[in-house]
Amino acid sequence: MGAMSSSELSRLQVCLRRLLGSPGLTVNAPPRAGLSVELAVNGEVVGTVHRDEDEGEVSYAIHMTVLEEDLPPAK
């Protein structure tokens, strides 16, 4: 996994906002080296973004966790 530049974070944010239809989505740089890039919606962190480079090709993986307590009540 590699570190992401501010330009890369910005480009990824534009792409994810478009793909997911969420203008409130932000891709936030980690506060210090060694921590994960955070994915947030309307200020609430919903996951992490990881960068992978293999044979010159770069890809991004998003890990998102949804707590059962955040789900609407069962019917």
Automatic annotation (TrEMBL):
- Pfam families named in the record: DUF3126
Q: Which domain of life is it from?
A: Bacteria
Which InterPro entries does this one have?
DUF3126
Q: What is this protein called?
A: DUF3126 domain-containing protein
